[in-house]
Amino acid sequence: MENLSMRWGSNIVLDDIDLRLQAGERLVVVGPSGSGKSTLLRLLAGLQLPTSGRLRIHGEPQTYLRLDQRHPPDVRLVFQNPALLASLSVKENVGFLLYRFSRLSEQEIAERVDMALQAVGLAGIEEQMPGELSGGMQKRVSFARALIEDPTAPQSLTPLLLFDEPTAGLDPVACTRIEDLIVRTSELVQASSLVVSHVMSTIDRCAERVALLYDGRFRWIGAVEDFRVSTNPYVVQFRSGSLQGPMQPAEN
C-alpha cells in the first residue's frame, strides 16, 4: 500500500497510509473500533477500491473481485462470522471453489476436503449441515475452506490469508484453538497472513509484526517483541485498555 486513502464523502476512513506485507509474514492489525481495519480488509480482498493511492498484490494492482478474472490474486478471507452456506453440507462449503471452478472429479474434491477437515481437527463431518455444528466447529470449517487452493490463481504466488477478528466472542480455550489454527493454516498453505484483532492473546500467539491503526492512520508498526515493551502512547493505551491517552472511544 502506497499513499492509500479511502473516503466516504467527507469522512476519511484511511488517510494516506503505507504498508508492505512480506511473503510468508504474519501481521496483526490492531486498533479501536472505527479505526479503518474492516475497510483495510475489504480493499485487500477486492471488495472495494481505494479513493486514491496504490494497492498492489504480487506487484499487480488490486482490482474489484470478479469471477471472470483470468488470473485473480489468491486472496482468502476468513470472516468473523463463519459465513457458511446453510443449504450446503460441510463438504460442499469447504470444497465450494473446487466444485464451481475446477475440473477435478468428485472423488478428488472429496479427498482434498477430507485433508482440509483433518487439518482443523474435524475429520468425518463432511455430510453434516452447518446448523448441526457448534459455533466453534463452524469457525474451524471456515478455516478448512481457506486451506482449499483457488484453482483459478497462479500456483507460483504466495496466497494472502485475511482473518477478520477470528477470536471475537470466544472463550479463552476456544481462542487458543483458533490462534493455533491461524498459525497452522498459514504454514500449511505457505501464506502471508493479515489478522485484524483486538485480543492480546491473538497478538501474542499469531503475530510476527504488529500495526496499530487509529483514525485512519498507522500510529505504530513493528515486531511483536517491540510491541510488548513500546512506550509509544498509542501502544501503551491499547495494551492497558486505559481511557487516558491519544485514542478516544468511538461514540455509540
Describe this structure in words.
This protein has 252 residues and is an alpha/beta fold. The chain has two domains: 1-74 and 158-252, P-loop containing nucleotide triphosphate hydrolases (Rossmann fold), CATH 3.40.50.300; 82-152. It has helices at 37-45, 90-94, 96-101, 106-119, 135-147, 172-188, 200-206, 224-227, 233-240, and strands at residues 2-8, 11-17, 26-30, 52-54, 56-57, 60-61, 75-78, 160-164, 192-196, 209-214, 217-223. The strands form three sheets. Strands 7-8-9-3-10-11 form a six-stranded mixed beta sheet, with helices on both faces. Strand 10 (209-214) and strand 11 form a beta hairpin.
Radius of gyration: 19 Å
Mean pLDDT: 89
Tally of DSSP β-strands: 11
How many structural domains?
A: 2
What is the correct CATH architecture of the largest domain? 3-Layer(aba) Sandwich
| Assembly context of the chains | single chain
CATH class of the largest domain: Alpha Beta
Please work out how many helical segments DSSP would assign.
9
Order of helices and strands: EEEHEEEEHHHHEHEHEEHH
Largest sheet: 6 strands, mixed
Spatial strand sequence of the major β-sheet: 7-8-9-3-10-11
CATH homologous superfamily designation of the largest domain: P-loop containing nucleotide triphosphate hydrolases
Tell me the overall shape: globular
**CATH fold descriptor of the largest domain:** Rossmann fold
